[in-house]
Design goal:
Layout: H1 2-10, H2 12-19, H3 26-29, H4 43-47, H5 57-81, H6 98-111, H7 121-132, H8 139-147, H9 155-173
Amino acid sequence: MEKLKRFFDNNLEFYKYYRTNSTYLDHKYFVRGKHDIKLSLDTFYFEADHSFSTSHDYKVAKIIANDMIQVYLEGQLYNKSQGNKLMTPPNLKWTGSKVALIELVYALYYQGVFDNGNTDIRLIAKYFESTFNINLGNFYQTYLELRSRKMNRTKFLDALREELIRRMDEQDEK
């Protein structure tokens, strides 16, 4: 983990450029034969085949690989802290609004993420009801009300997305 952090610290400027999906320097970073010696180049670049590689494609590959290694290591550390025993899933109670859960259920249903899209909406709703110990009532009627909203029809999903992006950005800055 220290090695991953050191790589991140040593490449902070490029890491931020990559993570923010910036493109204003792509013509310098990702075009073959256009390296700029003033840019922070890895020693790997000088050993690479310049007809195949760009000055920063290896660095992007390392960032992606480091992300995957970090997820793996954190998972291993978590398992070790739990004593490597299989944990019983906790009984979670949904404390958000019913409307929010119904919005989520329909989004997952329309995305077809359960049984390759071959699951009935009622089965998905029943599963969420039993998993989160909540009664969704007439969820179809609630869905019709969601559809008839004039503004912000996917309020909960939008809030989920924004919060996830905000947290990712915070973690990228660490």
